[in-house]
Amino acid sequence: MTPTEITLHQQSNLLEIAFGEDRFNLPAEYLRVYSPSAEVRGHGPGQEVLQVGKRNVAISGIEPVGQYALQITFDDSHDSGLYSWEYLYELGKYQQGLWHDYLSKLEAAGASRDPQ
């Protein structure tokens, strides 16, 4: 599965990605808190690190990696983690549920989307 279109909307801070008929608008904050990096996901189940204070994070750059992924650089200097086409599709397809899960985890931790 390869995207047919990728557009970074810097004004609205969205990555628009299309896979044929499926088109997703992925906010920078969402992409940042679901980064596929070890820093965020850990090195195994149960080692995930809840990302807090990322409401205002912006995408400062995107670079293709071969024919299979994007490397996204955020303005908080986070740039580790390769977003494969498959992972970006999953983030789009399950966006509503994943975002709800994230907000629930923040609430349970007594944490905030707002920077300190």
Question: Can you summarize this structure?
Answer:
By secondary structure, the chain is α+β, with helices and mostly antiparallel strands.
Structure description:
The protein is of the alpha+beta class and 116 residues long. It has 4 helices and 6 strands. It has helices spanning 28-33, 38-41, 85-93, 95-109; strands spanning 5-9, 14-19, 22-27, 59-65, 69-74, 82-84. A 3-stranded antiparallel sheet has the order 1-2-3. It has a 3-stranded antiparallel sheet with strand order 4-5-6. The longest helix has 15 residues, at 95-109. The protein is globular, with a radius of gyration of 14 Å. The model has no long low-confidence stretch (mean pLDDT 94).
- What's the domain count? 1
Uncertain runs with pLDDT below 50, 5 residues or more? none
Distance separating the two termini: 39 Å
On the 0-100 scale, what is the average pLDDT? 94
Strand order of the largest sheet: 1-2-3
H and E order: EEEHHEEEHH
Total of helices = 4
Give the CATH architecture. Answer: 2-Layer Sandwich
- CA radius of gyration: 14 Å
Helix content: 25-40%
Name of the CATH first level? Alpha Beta
Query: Which assembly state applies to the chains in this document?
Result: single chain
- Dominant shape: globular
* Major beta sheet summary: 3 strands, antiparallel
**What is the total tally of β strands?**
6
In CATH, the topology is named: NE0471 N-terminal domain-like
The helix/strand class is alpha+beta
Report the β-strand fraction as a percent range. 25-35%
